[in-house]
Every structure is written in C-alpha cells, then in structure tokens.
Specification:
There is one protein chain. With 415 residues, the chain is an all-alpha fold. The protein has one domain. It has helices at residues 2-23, 29-67, 70-77, 79-85, 94-107, 111-127, 137-147, 155-167, 179-201, 208-228, 233-261, 266-300, 303-317, 328-333, 338-352, 357-368, 372-381, 391-414.
C-alpha cells in the first residue's frame, strides 16, 4: 500500500512539475521524460538479467552449505542474538544463516555477494510467513536492518575519490579519510533501524546478547580504525580488497570442503541450487522496473531540485550554516537510486572539489545510506509480497538518521 502511494506520487508530482516547465518554455521536457523512462526500463531489465549469473553462483554455494550442515551451524551460532531480534524465526532455521551471510557481505561492501544472499534469506522467511502476500515481522526487521546495515569499508566510494583526486591534480590525497565518519554514520543508522522496528514489534533490546553485540561491534570498529589508519591510502585499499576477497572465497572453500568431507555430491548440490537463480532474477524484473521508472520521472522533471532548494531556503531562514546543502541531493537520491546518488556525488566532487567539505560529506552520505526503495522492490518482489506494512517508513527513518549523523560527523571531522 505504501509503495503504491509513493509510486503514484512520484508519477503525478513529476507530471505536474513537467507541466510547469512546459509553461515556462521548456518544450523538450516530455521528450526527456520519455527518454528517461525507456532508458530506465532497460536498465532495470539489465540489472535483473545481470543477477542471473550471480544468483546462480551464490544459490549454488548456499545449497552446498545447506546440505553440508554449515548453514544450520551458522544459525545455531547466532541463535542467542537472533532469538531476541527475530523471535518469530524457529530456532536453527536456515534463514538465520542466510541473514548472517548477507549482513557479512554488506559489511565488507560486497554488494554483488550480498544481494543473492539477501534474496535467499527472504525466500526462506517466506516459507514461515503465515500470510504470503503480507510482509511478516521477521521480513520487516531483516529488510530494515539490511537497508541500514553497517558498512565497515566503503570500498567503491574510496576508489572513486582516489580516481577523482588524481584527475584534479591532488597529491598526497588520503581518499580513505572518510572511513571513520562513514562507519559512525552507518552504525548509528543500524542501531536506529533496529530500535524503531523493535519498538513497533515490542522487542526488548536491553538483553545481554543484543547489548554484547552492539558493544562488541563498537569495539571492533575502534580496533579496525586503529589498525587501518596507520596504512597509506593505496595499501589500505589493497588490504581492504584482500580482506573482503579472502573472507568470501574462504566461505566458498569451507562449504565445499565440509561438503566433500561429509560425502555429499557437492557438484550436484551446486547445480540444484543454481537452477533457482534464473527464476528469482526473472521474478524481480517487473518490481524493479516499476520503482525505477517512477524515480526517473521525479528526477528528470527536476522535482528533486525543488525539494533541495526548499530545504536550503529553510536552513538559511533559520540562520544555520548552509555548507551542507549542496551535498543533500545525494542523501535524498540514495534511497531511490544508488547509481543516481553516485552520479550526484561525483557532480558535487566535480563542482566543489573532492577534498572540499561538500565533497567529503557527499562521499560519507553515499557510503552510509542504502537504496531503500530498490531493496524493498527487489527483496519483497522476489517473494511476491504486496503489503509491506511499516517497512518503508522504518527504512526511510534509518536513512534519515544516517544522513543527519553524516552531516554532524562531517562538521566534526572536516569543517
């Protein structure tokens, strides 16, 4: 219901803005809208089609892990925590292991690995969902924590900054200086998402496993920062890439080795799991295209520009510092489109400089927020959920918290 209202609003508001621009003499506005619609529909299809190979790979690997008993082992290991956060998931259910794997991939910034694992988790949650068209409590908690998920390493953002610094002639530039601010923003967003969903679902968070996880993760963040900050930017990026690749490939080797040791046919298990990859990717196509074309209308007509302008005027009227306003389009676009937000981030860095306050803030926002509408469309669409209940509101709340915290930490570190 909520996604329906948002979808209609994007289309109608975009149409109204287009009429205003036509009245002002922009006779090409509707041509731009149609071009954007067609291009976006193709992009949505290409994204879904591109998922086939990745989905087949990871669903095959997860099937090996499932038959080898590793997924059940993961689920038992995190059972004390997940019994509190996901009380409606049966103990040692495979969904628990898939959720852990998804969170781990997201933490390392490995989006290609995280998406198929998340889709597998949603399918397993759908198996225990009493109403197949309505999002269950565990689905909503998983999705919100996924959209607000902690990103330990904003690998792609660091790489883009390093490349742009070279093109702008900057020497001795530390592209990883946004690491700690981004980590703080995304961690606070994660805790905020957990807290708001827990409140709605009446989950008590002051329990030993949850407190231990939050405290332990905070300690891990501090230790990781102390270790990585001593490395030069190039060596840091290389270390981060090695760490992520080693962990993911290590999981693959572990599943295959344990499966072989337990005398299961790992090749057959992989093929059985991979067969589902195409079906899942095809199921996503209509949901993904639907949300992307609505976003395209809103973006192409300039609706986003009006929103940012209004915010800037309000901030100025309140007598507050407006230096952060140029980076706001990234925060407003990120829940709608990851590629769109990435383009806006590059635009801010080009206009103000990659080492400017605005450029750093745009990078922090890009690295600490998630494409909430995309995740909702893809994850819920993959299991044909039609009523998302309060998932969107909670996801957007976590995004808002992330943007606000990003602004504060950017001022604290760089202003």
């Amino acid at each position: 219901m909520v996604l329906n209202l948002v979808w209609v609003a994007f289309i109608l508001i975009g149409f109204a803005v287009a009429l205003v621009k036509l009245a002002q003499g922009d006779v090409t506005i509707f041509t731009k809208i149609l071009t954007g619609l067609f291009d976006t529909a193709k992009v949505g299809f290409d994204i879904s089609l591109g998922l086939v190979g990745i989905m087949s790979l990871w669903l095959g690997i997860m099937k090996i892990g499932e038959r080898a008993g590793m997924i059940a082992l993961f689920a038992r290991a995190i059972d004390p925590l997940f019994r509190r956060i996901f009380p409606d998931i049966p103990r040692a259910h495979p969904a628990g292991g898939s959720i852990v794997m998804n969170f781990s991939a997201n933490m390392l910034g490995l989006d290609n690995a995280a998406t198929p694992l998340g889709l597998k988790a949603m399918r397993e949650l759908q198996e225990i969902n009493p109403d197949k068209e309505v999002a269950s409590n565990p689905m909503i908690m998983f999705l919100v924590l996924n959209t607000a998920g902690v990103t330990l390493i904003p690998t792609s953002v660091i790489a883009i900054r390093q490349s742009m610094a070279a093109s702008q002639g900057l020497t001795g530039f530390n592209a990883a200086d946004i690491f700690l601010p981004t980590l703080i923003a995304t961690f606070v967003s994660f805790v905020a998402g957990l807290a708001v969903v827990a409140r709605v679902q009446r989950i008590r968070l002051l329990q030993a496993p949850i407190v231990a996880f939050v405290g332990g993760f905070g300690a891990l963040m501090g230790g990781l920062y102390l270790w990585l900050r001593t490395l030069p930017p190039a060596e840091m990026a290389q270390t981060i890439g090695l760490l992520g690749s080693l962990i993911i490939f290590g999981v693959i080797v572990l599943f295959v080795a344990v499966g072989a040791a337990r005398r299961i046919n790992v090749y057959e298990a992989f093929v059985d799991g991979a067969k589902d990859g195409f079906q899942v990717a095809v199921t996503i196509i209509p949901y993904l295209i639907a949300i992307l074309v609505a976003i395209s209308v809103f973006r192409t007509t300039g609706g986003m520009d009006y929103v940012v302008g209004a915010i800037g005027a309000l901030v100025f009227a309140l007598g507050l510092n407006t230096d952060f306003v140029p980076a706001l389009p990234v925060g407003l676009m990120k829940p709608l489109s990851g590629s769109g937000a990435r383009g806006l981030m590059v635009d801010v860095m080009t206009t103000y400089g990659v080492d400017s306050f605005q450029g750093k803030l745009a990078a922090i926002i890009q690295g600490s927020t998630e494409t909430t509408f995309y995740v909702l469309a893809v994850y819920f669409g993959s299991v044909n959920i039609r009523r998302t209940r309060y998932a969107l509101a909670c996801g957007l709340f976590a995004d808002l918290v992330s943007v606000v915290v990003a602004i504060f930490v950017a001022y604290a570190f760089f202003h």
